[in-house]
Amino acid sequence: MKSKYQDNNMESTVSVSKGVFLFSNGFKRAKHLKKKSKQPLFDSLFNKEPWYVTYKYNWNAIEIQLKELHEKTYSVLLNDIVSYVKSFDQDHQYDSIEGIIPSATLLTGVNQPDHANQFLALIHKIREDVTPHVAMISSQDASTVKHLVESAVSQLIHGQDYLDDSADDSMTEQTIRLKKSQCTMRALHNWYQSKYVSTSPKKLKHAAPKKTLVVIMPDFESFSCNILQDFVMIVSSYITSLPIVLIFGVATSVSALHKSFPYHVSSKLLIKVFHSHPSHVYMNQVLENIFLTHTSPFHLCGRAFELLTDVFLFYDFSVTGLVQSIKYCMMEHYYGDNIKALCCSPDKIEETISKLTSVDLEHIRQLLSFRPFLEIQECETKIGLFEDDNFFREVLCKEMHKLHDYLYSFYLCVRLLSALVKDLPKNLLGKTVREIYAKCSIEHVTNTQPFKECMQLLNFQSQVKMADSIKNALKEINSVLQIVSPVKPLRSTPSKTNMNSIAVNNDLGQDFAKSISIHFLTFLRQIENAHNEAPVLAYANHERENDLETDIIPGNRYKLKEKLLKATRVEKIQSEFEMVRSRFVSYLEEMFAKGLRPPRTQTFHEILFFSDLSSVKKQIVGSPRGALHLALNNPVHYLQCSCCHLPSPESISEWLPDVSIAYKLHRECGKHINLYDWLQAFAAVLRPDEEDDERYQDAGIQVRFTRAVAELQFLGFIKSSKRKTDHVMRLTW
Amino acid sequence: MDIIGAENYNADKQMDDPQFTPRRAARNRTKPKKYDEFLDTPVAKRKTRCYVSSSDEDIDENTTPKPKALFGNDDVEGQDIFKFKSRHTKNDLHNKVKAAVTHTSINTNSPMKTPRKNLNLLQKATEATPKHVVNIMKKKIIKEVESDSSDSDFSGSSSDFVPEKSDEENDSSASDSGSNVEDENCPKKSTTSLITRNRGSKLKQKDAEYFVTPDNYFMMNSSKKITTSDHTLARLKNMNLDENVREADIHMSTEHQNRITDLTETYDQLFDRWIYVLSENFNVILYGIGSKRQVLQRFQSKKLHDMPCIVVNGFFPSLTMKNVLETIVVDLLENTHVPSNIGDAVNLIEAQLDECGVHLFVIVHNIDGVMLRSFKAQSMLASLAQLRNVHLIATIDHINAPLLWDHSKLSKFKFTWWDVTTFLPYIEETSYENSLMTQRSGVLQLSSLKSVYQSLTTNAKGIFKIVIEYQLENQKQSHYQGLPFKDLYSKAREHFLVSSDLALRAQLTEFLDHKLVKQKRTLDGSENLVIPIESALLQQFLDQLTTFQ
């Protein structure tokens, strides 16, 4: 029955007259319109799974955070633009200049996918502060001037409802909607006259000040030049009666604007340029504020994190893309695994643990990081952990809190390290928090050479700089301490007696942060106080140098050398500052060694940290060409058959699939391939024992070859060539 | 080049950590041997990626950042796919075949066949041969080769090696590192010799690095002349395969058939995952060799049986984006017409789908199909795929398919990439296409020629035959202009086929309509008639005619 259905399906999507097939599967529009409240399709699929609920909750939280951050980042820029636009709204100083269109150019950078949000925010802002009449035209709506004008005018007249449907009250009283084809500049002019100008004599107070009309083109480079030129010229002829402001989003540089507008057009424009943030700054902000904090419910392990930042830095520069990749990792992390429901904010851990079934608990017991934890326990506890689910739940709860404490101090230390190391020469550990995070989460950073060198360099830092960097570090600590974690009071009392037997090193978390803060404060004070003593010593040194100089008889180089040598041998007396400094550095080393242990050393880190890089890499960075090559070059990799094992990847055997043989043979050819020769080679591989003549007459081989060639052509390795009869061109090197 | 390379040469195989790949774990892939080699060769390349130790600090300052996690050890080495090959010679193909034959059939055990590796060793050993000696020897050999290249059949054998001037010059000039001569015996022929071009050890070393040998590219493209043999398919005796034979089952061993079924069944386990991914507003794209129609059809019938679904055959030669939009807007959403502006159409679809609260699944077989390759079609698909209620599942096969999308389109598509290699033959996908081979063998042309011919009147047949015969006789002229109309008229009159100029023209219009004959005007104003079909085919047609009658 099933197979029959499949067959039907198969046949029904092949036709010589049609390329598109509809399977409405019982969908009727009229029917669905009535019962609108039907539950969204997908929610019903996963809604009952705990992991899905947690995932959804956490992702929504992250999205909200992203939105807030987004508004914060762009607010300065947007305010600038809006006030610029406003300036034309209020004083009409430019009215006097004939036919000049005020325009703003926003240099957005090449990460175009991110810009949509930026422009939506801009529109929102302009709507709120300046004028309700905003139109945004993307290049795909502007294939001709007519289309461009139509869509601009209809958006200007009909206002919001194009971009958001919320404001429908005011729209209902709007007169008849104009048809698209009726939207011309003339219509716009009439509409504007009737709305703002003609009413003004009657009721002056009501007639609001003339509202500006704003037209935004977010992707300037994708418009065709001629269309834009025409549009600008048209607008400039109406500018006396219609106060239009243009906003261009330019991805490359201002010169793009100058290149596409000749003088007679650009002279009609009053251009002011605004710069937006480079995308990597924005990326760092997103990562530092949202994902690399202890409040984030989900964490990426170092390798996965590096992959995502690499994709950003080397492929697309798009923060949206980065966020989507992180989302994908998160989806993968949670997918189908109920114990990942534990990957939530600390205050929900108890609740979640109580809901876990014994199967889930068993899964947790099988986690790799549970083993080292188990080994250090006493025998009794071990048995308890395995047999008593309730006891295990308690331990689990405790360990999860410990893990969160660890995260708290880990991220704190990462930030501290970055604050201290940021200004050091040579960038051994990197400048940004994300780089340092990646290093710290991969290995014990305190054991690495770069870290040691950094500490050495810190040991050479001057007093002023040192004090500065400590101050910066203190700022980091305070900002972290301000986010009060609600965990503390909840887990202060162990309920069972044998709980005490579990080895707990409870020295991370907030206490740790506080102690660091105190230490740093004292060090800062000491260093600043040491300031007074230092000059004395320096002065002493200086005097001695002066002695040296006075002694020097000009020309007597040998003596000078002697003296200098002697001077180096004199033991330097450490100044107080130097002593404090070296104490500080050794404190840092100790503190970081404690706080920067990589996540994989922690019990149950698998629950919070996503580390399965290999499973997502393929999905995030596709490798279609690599897969093709691999499959053709070495079919065993996919087929797992016994017949195709090759002595070396280059060799050919008659057992390989036909396409593979043809592919390998074609790689031996130059730019042009003689079909006949190719066929002969193919035949010779397939039938090595037969006589030549026999082999050539075999129609079966010809058929197989024909098919293989057709497939290679379909895959784009070859194409037909007219240069010589029966030759094909090779399209790869 | 960089971007394509980077994007594509990440064929990561997950065999390093089997516990992470539940679906593949059962299959337990063996590690292909070539990776060992890969690990050996590009050491230099790898080194740059590691952290430069403190000893060379000066260099350290200037190093540009390198991607750290993007490229793993288990990637397909880009070099293997993209490197500039040194110039190909005719013998490459032959050598390859020989190597293959020696591997498979031991019974021939001819000592003179040297496997590839030995060959290389030999080359190295003989490298010290002074250049002038080499040149002399080479000239001798070329002479020999020329002398007996007359009547051999097997193209790959050295016998059809026709040495070219450009080659010779290249070799004798100092730029080349010298070529190497090797005596080899062919198994079935008398002793002939092979010239194998030696790449030279220096060049070889350079080859190991990815970017150093652009010279080879220019070498390869420097000579305009096509350096292949002059054989054509006309040499095949059974040029026109029977229709039945052509349609015969695709050859595949039973072992492979079983393996392929196993392989495709493993993909069924991905269906749930795809639904999950789709539900989070990502889209799915499948790649890998082999037709993926079956997999998608199973997916559709198993998972999408109660949702509205649209299947687009991207390989369909007369597909337009308008068809796709029409199906959605008119057939599914029951509107009367599609808005002319693409943006409006997309907005309409978005609004109406949202209103109904329904999710639409769009399955595109070959999103890289010929008709979908335009910028417009792709941006249209991208803006459709971006909608919250539209979910796209697409497949790609062409090696350059990823070039279709710039990054703003990619960000709209939000693809997740899945390797679905099936090795199934592309039956439907290639069925519309004129295959290179079948086109050459001209089965279609011949049969259509026949059927048209048979419907002609006897007089018309006669006229057509005159044109054919004339063309076959005179085609060898370098500038064959066709049969002048005047000549045709006089010949036709001789045979009592037509009585007047007008009657002949009436007959000719019939041919012109069926494109059997083309009319050309020469410079002096006379009309010439040409049959746009290859002479071999014409000859065959003529032979068949005479046998029938």
Provide an overview of this structure.
The complex is a heterodimer of chains A (733) and B (549). With 733 residues, chain A is an alpha/beta fold. Chain A is built from 33 helices and 11 strands. In chain A, the strands form 3 sheets. In chain A, strands 3-4-5-2-6 form a 5-stranded parallel beta sheet, sandwiched between helices. Chain A has a 3-stranded antiparallel beta sheet with strand order 9-11-10. Chain A is globular and about 85 Å long. The N terminus of chain A is likely disordered. Chain B contains 27 helices and 10 strands. A 5-stranded parallel beta sheet of chain B has the order 4-5-6-3-7, with helices on both faces. A 3-stranded antiparallel beta sheet of chain B has the order 8-10-9. In chain B, strands 1-2 form a two-stranded antiparallel sheet. The N terminus of chain B is likely disordered. The chains are: A alpha/beta (733), B alpha/beta (549).
Short structural description:
Chain A contains 33 helices and 11 strands. Chain A has 733 residues and is an alpha/beta fold.
Biggest sheet features of chain B = 5 strands, parallel
The helix-and-strand class of chain A reads: alpha/beta
Report the radius of gyration of chain A as a whole number of Å. 36 Å
Count of beta strands of chain B: 10
Q: Portion of residues in helices of chain B?
A: 40-55%
